[in-house]
Amino acid sequence: MSEILPLVLKSDRKAQYEFYMLLVPRLKGVSLRYLKSKEEVEDILQETFLSIFSNIATFKGESKVETWATRILINTILQKFNRDKKYAFSDVEDEVIEDKGNFSVTDSNLLHEELIQLVNKLSDSKKIIFNLYVIEGYSHKEIAELLNITESTSKTQLFRAKETLIELHKKMNHVRTIA
Amino acid sequence: MSGRLPEHIDEIESFYKENLEGFESLPSPDLWSKIDASLSPAVESKVGSAAQKSIWKSKWFWGGVGAIALTAIVIAGFYAKTVGVRNSEIDSINKPFLDPDVKKLPPRYEDENAPSVYSPSKVSSSVKSKAPLGDVEPKLGDVKNIKSTQQISVEKNDSATVPNKINETVERLEEELKPITDEEHKEEPEPSKKNMIERLKEKNKGKNDLFLKKDK
Predict the structure, then answer these.
(1) Which of A145, B127, B192, B210 is the most buried (most CB within 10 A)?
(2) Residue B142 pLDDT > 90, yes or no?
(3) A120 close to B (CB below 8 A)
(4) CA–CA distance, B41 with A30 (Å, rounded to integer)
(5) Helix (H) or strand (E) run with residue A120 in it
(6) B47 in contact with chain A, both atoms CB, cutoff 8 A
(7) Chosen domain end from A54, A86, A118
(8) Domain assignments of chain B as residue spans, ordered by start
(9) Do residue A107 and residue A137 come from a single domain?
(10) CB under 8 Å to A113, separation ≥6 — which residues?
């Protein structure tokens, strides 16, 4: 990665492609936890990589390139949510959870996709806070600053997200045993 | 998926973190082509075309182009002038030789005996025919006509039928050109005043007594 970076800085197209190939699987894995449709994921990845190549000169090497790129991706996703006004943190009522399906238990990759689908069943506000706190490792303070909400709202949303997931797991487990 | 499904609210965090952190998925093949298409005008224009625009818009660029063009015109003009003049001079010199009209000159110029036409071979042949060997006596200062003694002796031997006049002339020239030896030089005493007076006395003996008296 360190060998490619100087060439990426010079806008060398081959190096940019190699850089993209190294980062895109991870970034796609992250974006799948926030966005439901494949089209949305592709659009966000495209926007993110353009932003990465445009701002590669600002990368100072204080953290890993992957971490830096993931932050850019999350910022892009949050901008999209904010743009589309998809989430409303004032709404604290539980969503009605619809069980969509039969899941295979034989393939471990599908199990990962199961979990992602369960996360995506959460409301956008719960999903964002759950992902930021549990997976990305942000604190409630950081989330509050990032989303312009209070820390208590962040904590409440996280608690309700976990409750919902447990309910979903129970249902999914029931569905799986029936199938 | 590792571990059993979480049943308690505190377990779900670690379960999802373990299973979803670092999850990777391959992108669709045409994603890069979309990025590449979007990247071409965006990133490359920042580096390449922006610099090109600044160059094309720069007055210094056009000023430089103008200066180079002007210099090229001046050099080309100077070259054309000097080389053209030189060629015209050469043409003017070569014209009589190159001009096909020269061949159309009147036949009198082509006549071998025409006096106005100089031909070294013809002149030498005509001189030889008119002036046989040794016929022309060398004049004072005429270095060309002076021959060495060896040359003369050779010519003398070779030319048995040459008139006697020529032989006489050659003999006389040999005498004249014969180097004076030291003995000959010594035999002729240097004329002194005394000898000169004696000669004058003999010459004017009986004619001018007054001169003799005075001398005494």
Answers:
(1) A145
(2) no
(3) no
(4) 28
(5) helix A108-120
(6) yes
(7) A86
(8) 41-111, 131-185
(9) yes
(10) none
